[in-house]
Structures are given as C-alpha cells and as structure tokens.
What does this fold into?
Amino acid sequence: MANETHLIKTFSCPHCGGITTITQLAAEPLVTSGKIPEGTSLSAQKIVLPLLPLEKITGLTAMVLLIERDYCADCGTEYTIRVSTIEAPIQMGRQPPPGSGPFGGFNFKQPPPGMGRG
Ligand SMILES: [Zn+2]
It folds into this structure.
C-alpha cells in the first residue's frame, strides 16, 4: 500500500551546505546493487507527529507530520533533512486495563498441563 506523501521542505546542511547524509552514503552500495529501490527516503531518525488530535482521528489512517533528521556526510552536523506530511496507519494499541488478565492482573504464565512435579 503506497502512502500518500506531500513533501513540504528539504534542507541542506546549515553548517557547510552539504546535501549528502551519512545514511545516504552508507546505503549507496545497497541502492547501486538494487537492494534498496532508488528514491527511497532514507534518514537516520524519523519523528512522526500527528496533525490531528487523537480524538479527531476516525479512520484507519491519518495525515501525520514526518520530520526526518540525519547527519551531514561532509561535516557530521545533525540537521533536519526533510519535512513532509504522510498518510500513516493508526495503531490502535490499547493496554488491557489492570486486573483484566486471566489471573486477576498478574501476567505470569501458567505451566502447561502435565508439566507439574513428578
Ligand atoms: Zn555539513
């Protein structure tokens, strides 16, 4: 499933003006050999921020702000390389309420039948 991506802004290194990042440099042999498709968005760190308050999200996907950070391959400065919005799947990760487990809230494993002493 291709996520909808809208590029907002790209940046070059604020220190030296370089545009090559450490991640691009490291992945270059993999891109050349075809193991990573050309044009793949590579970055050392991806920060995802929801654009909508959680209670306003109704579907299975929502537009989120994606801030990608990396290190300049020329001088090592860490900087934001790209900002975009993407349509990302929403994870409905729910914690079970305390005390709702099969053992009254204790998460120990019961030994399987027949594995007792003797
Ligand atoms: Zn630099």
Notes: The chain has one domain: 5-89. The helical segments are 22-32. Strands lie at 5-10, 45-50, 61-71, 78-89. The radius of gyration is 22 Å.
